[in-house]
Amino acid sequence: MRLVRPVTLTALVGFGTSAQAQSCWENLTCTGPLDAAFPGEWSTNIFAPSSRTVAPTSILSLANTSVISAWPGSAHIAGNGSALVFDFGKEVGGLATITYTAQGSGALGLAFSEANNYIGLWSDSSNGKFAPGGGDGAIYDNFTTAGNHTYTMDKAHLRGGFRYLTLFLITNETSSTIDINTISLEIGFQPTWSNLQAYQGYFHSSDDDLNKIWYSGAYTLQTNAVPVDTGRWVPTLAVGWANNGSLSNGTTVIVDGAKRDRAVWPGDMGVAVPATFVSIGDLDSVANALQTMYDHQNHDGSFPEAGPPLLQQSSDTYHMWSMIGTYNYVLYTNDTVFLTKNWDRYLHAMEFIYAKVHQPSGLLNVTGIRDWARWQQGFNNSEANMILYHTLQTGADLASWHGDTTGLADTYRSRAVNLSAAINQYCWDAPFGAFKDNATNTSLHPQDANSMAVYFGVVPASSSLSSRGQSISSRLLENWTPIGAETPELPNNISPFISSFEIQAHLTIGQTDRALDLIRRTWGWYLHNPNGTGSTVIEGYLTNGSFGYRNSRGYSYDDSYVSHAHGWSAGPTSALTNYIVGLSVTGRLGSTWTLKPQFGDLEHAQAGFVTSLGKFSAGWNITNGGRSYSLWWNVPAGTIGNVTLPTLPSGKTGKVSIDGKSFKNKSVSKTNGLTFEVGGGNHSIVVVSK
């Protein structure tokens, strides 16, 4: 079965372009998708609220954070320092309006926290300064007369991410009191969407935790899509916070975290963008983020490590992530206007980074040593070399898509082949069975480089080096703790960012059970953590289960500085769609695609996403105790895909029928699946044991 490949690709118009969009943050005229692309029972897992104006759901005691009552209800605060905690039930962010009735004089205080264990009269840290005496503190509405009052937070004090709002009374008068009448919050994220539940992708499986983890990643990405004038102000304030920094042009932009740093970080986008594509589908925010990196490219061709207003410099890895982000964006949108506009800058960026490849080793020599928080970087660092390999491979595709006729695509692929050979020659530790952190003699075998080596194909799944991938997968298990994988390059820390690459590495070589195990013990642990948001994915945490990410290595941060809604941790969202359901795009907009399910211990799974070519969806179901399964897909006409049928869970040989007709002379053996090419449309396959 085969259909003709499309002659041309249609550029993605988008669900609301920057030129068309008038931010509903100011004008209440949103231009995002009006409806979910795939409504169904899975919609109950969406954490996004049904309205852009939300209210708390319960009142907690400040003393022990136990529930006092539901909200709306009665909320009386009397006495200096007295407080009530209002729980929104999930991560939210924006500007709050409080109406209250006061007696006497004093001030109504507002303090915010993402995590339950940092609730208090002092907000959790978003500016990085120590508290008390510095840090975020609280904001206040002073009152001098009795009666009804209304307070609305000013825009500079937008609180990007929190679950808990503490309202308290500051007064010198023993008779002063406050009665809270109403609390409303105008959501500040995903500013061009009137319907925050209008997801353009979905996922559903037989495991409810995996379903919630997928949607917690998706919701995190929504909280990271922010109005372009709400970045964290730099330099940060000694006391308090200000989220009125300029981030990019346009209307909406994807940043690293809801609470902080609220800036464009291209490394984070390496995980966040693929997850965004399969879930919420907001690629306008991605385009604006990438464009701001191009607009702030340095004269030597290097990109900043982070976008404005931070504009941090000197990171070879994040420089390359901007280039990889360009590939991902064009893959998902076919926005050739964007590519053409920035092509000369992209070439300058490639010249900058490839000039650091030195002979005779043929390895990248890292001089821009800032990175994701790993403790060591520089020289022939293996992680950076893995990223360069992927940069070259994706650069070859970009050159082809741009229509280059000078042989750049072949040049980049040749360079990638040579780099892979050099990495395997100089960085592989044969006695240990994994890559070293550097080409020098070192006992450090990092999680990041080894995960990326498998995921990016530096050790291909089918070659003389294929056994190295299986060895790496086994060695990575040695870092695991009951609550996630400790990263050796940042000891005592668990990084869901780097673990996002690890789960995809295991899946790349068919180690499905390992990937699902790591998702459950890492993201599942946080999902059920009583101190977490219960709705988003966390930046990182310590192996002892506390939230003091990175502080074990001497960083001078308040432990509450960790972000509890960080898009770089959303790896399971794309992994569950692309590997467990098995549906991925390989050509722009999905002109070509693959369907290669991995069952693991699940009974069924399905997923979908949208490009301007139309809707893509697929799913599978195990039946008869593992002796048979069904697989279906529905993709746009005119596209071409490669479908790989897994072996039966029972291990038996299976007969294959497609669309109700026997697939003659084709079967799934006990050890090998079956791969074939198929065109678009709505199709189904049944595999039954012989």
UniProtKB/TrEMBL annotation:
Residues 1-21 form the signal peptide. It holds the Pfam family Bac_rhamnosid_C. InterPro entries: 6-hairpin_glycosidase_sf (IPR008928), 6hp_glycosidase-like_sf (IPR012341), Bac_rhamnosid6H (IPR035396), Bac_rhamnosid_C (IPR035398). Keywords: Glycosidase, Hydrolase, Signal. It comes from the Eukaryota. Residues 244-466 form the Alpha-L-rhamnosidase six-hairpin glycosidase domain. Residues 592-653 form the Alpha-L-rhamnosidase C-terminal domain. One of its GO terms (molecular function) is hydrolase activity, acting on glycosyl bonds. GO terms for biological process: carbohydrate metabolic process. PANTHER family: ALPHA-RHAMNOSIDASE, C, PUTATIVE (AFU_ORTHOLOGUE AFUA_3G02880)-RELATED. This is Six-hairpin glycosidase. It comes from Aureobasidium pullulans EXF-150.
